[in-house]
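Let's study a protein:

___
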Amino acid sequence: MKNFLKKFAVLLLFLSQLTPAFATVKVMPTLIELNANKSRGNYLTTSFSVQADKNETVRFKLYPEYFTITNEGKMDAVPVSSNADNLISHARFVPNEFTLKNGVPQVVRVTFTDLKSLPDGESRMVMFIEDVAAKEIMLPNANKNLNTRLIVKTRLGIPIYVDKGRVVKAGNFNDLKVEKNSNKNLVYKMDLSASGNSKVRYHGKAQIIKNNQLIKEFPVNSNTIRANGVFSEIGLLPGNLEEGDYVFKVILTYKNEKGENKNLIKETQFHVNDSI
């Protein structure tokens, strides 16, 4: 009798950090941010579309979950939460299940009600889109007596944020240093924080300067700092630096609650010698 090995895999995609399409499924937009202060009533409406390849028929179900943002800027879904900034009890969405076929997009409409009861600052949830039927893939195996089946369930997540009332987006650059890691490579470590009641999403660049001359410039990863939270990142510096004294400078940009660009700038000195 043949032995059957079943492997279960759940593929979780957070679309705010990935490209809009995975395989033959496309969701637009991949991130929704709303401002309740611009609402004319006690509700807000938004929508997104889901589309599959014209040669594929697939059925999806929708459900929301609350989430937090980790110190690494990642989404951490929480199935059950009584936090005041949880949007789920305010959300109504139609439809909650649908079939995609012939490449025709499905529009999902989402309404948030009773906005006045939300706390000042940011509230959030993630809308998950999950296929109803798991897909089974047969994998080749050198052992003829062993069949391997991979059962895959696809889940896409769209983060949704609502800012309301007195909103503060304030980023801080707490620390920056350059040091060697365990592999003797030069790395930079930066510590950031957000002291307001709404997340800070930044992008930026780093510069390596020697004798007041720009030697190298490269982009740093864009990331999100949770409201009233911290964020830390370690990155690798470019190699092939000649011996000498350098300045490492990081320039980050984010938008405050008024939509104005704000810069966070910090620099530190480091030395390169033959032993590095």
In short: The radius of gyration is 23 Å. The first strand starts at residue 3 and ends at 14.
